[in-house]
């Protein structure tokens, strides 16, 4: 099984994405990249608890979990920012409201695409694990989909719809 990731940079969402491929073999997980952006991520992951993975699919699950680790806090920042903008609008204190909202909508659209990609990937991995009879991996990707993507994707969709 193989696939790709295109991860937006939180510091500059509309900028260049970190893109790389992967290949899952029966006893090995392989990253495929042109630059060396994965190595720092893997070094940081080593410091996390419960990083041991008994299979390549379990490693992929842990990697995807790592990618989303601080996203709820990050998204809460958007929520807070939008609430501040609403207050400014109500008080007629915002000069560039339309320009500001347009920029935020574009950033939220990037995040929406990213979470949709992860949602599709999680669903595909869950189905693949089920077809292979890998019950533990199927459960892990079901939980990943439910606990991570289902919480974050609707939040972004709601924020996009509100503005």
Question: How would you characterize the overall build of this protein?
Answer:
The protein is mainly α. The chain is 64% helix and 12% strand. The chain contains five helices and three strands. It has a three-stranded antiparallel β-sheet. β2 and β3 form a beta hairpin. The radius of gyration is 18 Å and the shape is elongated. The termini are far apart. The model has no long low-confidence stretch (mean pLDDT 79).
Topology, pairings included?
Blueprint: E1 2-7, E2 18-25, E3 28-32, H1 38-45, H2 56-67, H3 71-90, H4 97-132, H5 135-162
Antiparallel strand pairs: 1-2, 2-3
User: What's the number of helices?
Assistant: 5
Measured by DSSP, the beta-strand proportion falls in 5-15%
Radius of gyration: 18 Å
Largest sheet, in brief, is:
3 strands, antiparallel
End-to-end Cα distance: 39 Å
Low-pLDDT stretches are none
Helical content band: 55-70%
Features:
elongated, 3-stranded antiparallel β-sheet, mainly alpha
Summary of the model, kept short:
This protein is 64% helix and 12% strand. With 163 residues, the chain is mostly helical. Helix 3 (71-90) runs parallel beside helix 5 (135-162).
């Amino acid at each position: 099984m193989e696939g790709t990731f295109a991860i937006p940079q939180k510091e500059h969402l509309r900028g260049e994405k970190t893109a790389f491929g992967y290949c899952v073999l029966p006893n090995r997980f392989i990253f495929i990249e042109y630059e060396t952006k994965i190595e720092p991520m893997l070094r940081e992951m080593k410091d996390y608890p419960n990083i041991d993975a008994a299979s390549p699919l379990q490693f992929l699950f842990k990697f995807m979990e790592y990618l989303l680790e601080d996203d709820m806090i990050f998204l809460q920042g958007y929520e807070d920012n939008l609430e501040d903008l609403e207050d400014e609008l109500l008080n007629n204190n915002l000069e560039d409201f339309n320009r500001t909202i347009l920029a935020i909508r574009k950033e939220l659209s990037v995040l929406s695409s990213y979470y949709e990609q992860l949602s599709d990937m999680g669903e595909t991995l869950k189905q693949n694990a089920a077809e292979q009879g890998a019950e533990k991996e199927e459960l892990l990707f079901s939980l990943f989909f439910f606990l991570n993507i289902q919480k974050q994707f609707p939040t972004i969709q709601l924020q996009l719809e509100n503005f």
